[in-house]
DNA sequence: CATTGAAGTCTTTTT
DNA sequence: GACTTCAATG
């Protein structure tokens, strides 16, 4: 029945629907629906027809619960709405409908929601009888399946939100032509349950049926290259000119995609990767895709999985710069003179180390009345120096140059000590910090990159696998990261980068926009493509943001267009204090949810903060109002005290030299070993040339004399715990089991109960950590395909497949893959424990998974929210000293 | 004498 | 919530 639909059917104009028949017809012929919302058993229908580029199309349909209460209660705002939900179905009268249409907030809500993407929305309301409602459901189902087969097949948000009545689906399928069925089969992995059911129901004994089954049973989602080609074409057809140009750009010509916000950056990047694999037959394992945050990496993985299947995605070398470096450094540790079991030292541990070193200069600082930064400040200064490639000795000259005025004859440490004591201490602390890291066999975040550069720079073969490098958010790369990219790309010099100079918000992390130019210098044939079409925001939001950033005079002028209407104007509200502000945020969100009649739910709201500490008042307000929320990037899971406790023990098991872990665990639970004793141990260990851990073990064994306040008896349980765990770890016990054993050995639960009021939530976090540990094992990077996945399912369907001589495509890169794992994997360097620890140290946003599905308002820092989008966004505390922040040295960035 | 507990201060942004 | 300082306890 769909065959005879003219393709330009959408030229037919549907402005509003006064009766059900015309609406129903319209739904069935409309091909380009943007969104289909969940249908509930309801009586009032909102139909919206939208005009896109001169073509009027029905775009969104939704049933809302009856409006009886709305009609009876004339009051506006919050009070009238919550009652809607529980009112039984009820046909509305003309008068009520009139009221509804007049209900400006509701319609406004609709229009602003839709006009984010489409201009000229018109809204009208229709009433449905029960029978009509059922027919409508049917129409929607057909419509959805049609969309699923022939529309935007990769849209993930449609999947969960659509009614899938199996009878209706079959009715739909029966009407399809053979060709359409084939295409359906090629995408049917998105509807696994349906397909299994269909094959059983129809007893399909033909080519199509097998393909459906093959798609379900074979590990690679798309059974034939013909279908891959079709899919790629459909993908390309949804891109605009510059986007498509970017995707199809020849792989061997370096490419810079300069993309404004909301211009489909990630879509282009993922499509390009798919294109490289599907059209240029570049093996996934030879593609390196780098992002800056784990969130971006995960997002990309998710989207790519929909395009090319899980198998191929697993083979991509994909992740943050840090994660990639860590991985290759473990593999090739020996090449650069590292030990494979190095520990990754996070910011908190770095800070503690620096604090400890700083104490040795305490007397000097006091005696000379030197103004000195706190250790956090120093850590970030050290980090800056490291990213710029300055070693402690280099800092001497640099700090002396910073001193204005007279020329300095001898640029050496002694002069620095005289002229800039604070600078001198900094250099000494920096030196000592580096020494400690080496001595304790650990790398901080910057070291991962620095040593990565050493590895790939000196040992070309370590990067020889790489055929193409793609970098997301390129404007945020710093010098080290840029070098890293260059070295990895060295073998084939195929590079694609995506970036936006206007969105550089990591200047404080030494991000260098100059890298865009550097790349043109180092890769002379580099081409640029600009993406200037914004698909995210309304015109008035763009105008506002342009107004803000164009206050920056040195900015390179760059345009951004949108096809959207101006939409509602952004609102600015002033409050006397933060309490009122927080209160307003809570009630305003409630009002908007109510006023839009459930079109917006909590997931559609975000509150963006300059820094996470601002969330206190707001969290309190949301709790008061009973609004569920989640905190992005707040106190991160892996930075929680109880999680760090457990991780520290495990780190020490894996790397006994790692000092921060030793200091954390030796008196945990309290064993009456205080600061002084620990300091003594460390000092004596240094004298003896042992790690503190080794020394403690020897004291325990009676091999060396005890220290002043006797330690031997106190450390008994500590030493046995570590020895037990070490033994178990070496025999390959899973991290999850190790944690359980550890909890038991140190009676951690008892300790928590004693030391913290909220021990129950803390215990839950540990359970969550155990969960994470068990998951991590399954999704370990580069895990070779399991036996089960390699062998096609041996049931009757698969056997039939082969009998009929049907070809199931063999993955091109599987062989290459197994070779590379054999060659690279120094089995010793990748114990399950080590993998787990690395994942823990390098992941930030492994928020509990079920959290994501729940309906919650998002609270996030602006930085963490980069690249995400919500229909409604609030930005509290936009006031001087907060936003722009008082300590920011780059106002353009704050803009 | 070393350790622990209580009270008080300060909190950018990320891997 | 993490760190520091000061007084009280083992």
UniProtKB/TrEMBL annotation:
<dbReference type="InterPro" id="IPR014017">
    <property type="entry name" value="DNA_helicase_UvrD-like_C"/>
</dbReference>
<dbReference type="Pfam" id="PF00580">
    <property type="entry name" value="UvrD-helicase"/>
</dbReference>
<keyword id="KW-0238">DNA-binding</keyword>
<keyword id="KW-0378">Hydrolase</keyword>
<feature type="domain" description="UvrD-like helicase ATP-binding">
    <location>
        <begin position="238"/>
        <end position="538"/>
    </location>
</feature>
<dbReference type="GO" id="GO:0000725">
    <property type="term" value="P:recombinational repair"/>
</dbReference>
<feature type="binding site">
    <location>
        <begin position="259"/>
        <end position="266"/>
    </location>
    <ligand>
        <name>ATP</name>
    </ligand>
</feature>
<dbReference type="GO" id="GO:0003677">
    <property type="term" value="F:DNA binding"/>
</dbReference>
<keyword id="KW-0413">Isomerase</keyword>
<dbReference type="GO" id="GO:0016787">
    <property type="term" value="F:hydrolase activity"/>
</dbReference>
<feature type="domain" description="UvrD-like helicase C-terminal">
    <location>
        <begin position="539"/>
        <end position="867"/>
    </location>
</feature>
<dbReference type="GO" id="GO:0005634">
    <property type="term" value="C:nucleus"/>
</dbReference>
<dbReference type="GO" id="GO:0043138">
    <property type="term" value="F:3'-5' DNA helicase activity"/>
</dbReference>
<dbReference type="GO" id="GO:0005524">
    <property type="term" value="F:ATP binding"/>
</dbReference>
<dbReference type="InterPro" id="IPR000212">
    <property type="entry name" value="DNA_helicase_UvrD/REP"/>
</dbReference>
<dbReference type="InterPro" id="IPR027417">
    <property type="entry name" value="P-loop_NTPase"/>
</dbReference>
<keyword id="KW-0347">Helicase</keyword>
<dbReference type="InterPro" id="IPR013986">
    <property type="entry name" value="DExx_box_DNA_helicase_dom_sf"/>
</dbReference>
<protein>
    <recommendedName>
        <fullName>DNA 3'-5' helicase</fullName>
        <ecNumber>5.6.2.4</ecNumber>
    </recommendedName>
</protein>
<dbReference type="InterPro" id="IPR014016">
    <property type="entry name" value="UvrD-like_ATP-bd"/>
</dbReference>
<dbReference type="Pfam" id="PF13361">
    <property type="entry name" value="UvrD_C"/>
</dbReference>
<keyword id="KW-0067">ATP-binding</keyword>
<comment type="similarity">
    <text>Belongs to the helicase family. UvrD subfamily.</text>
</comment>
<keyword id="KW-0547">Nucleotide-binding</keyword>
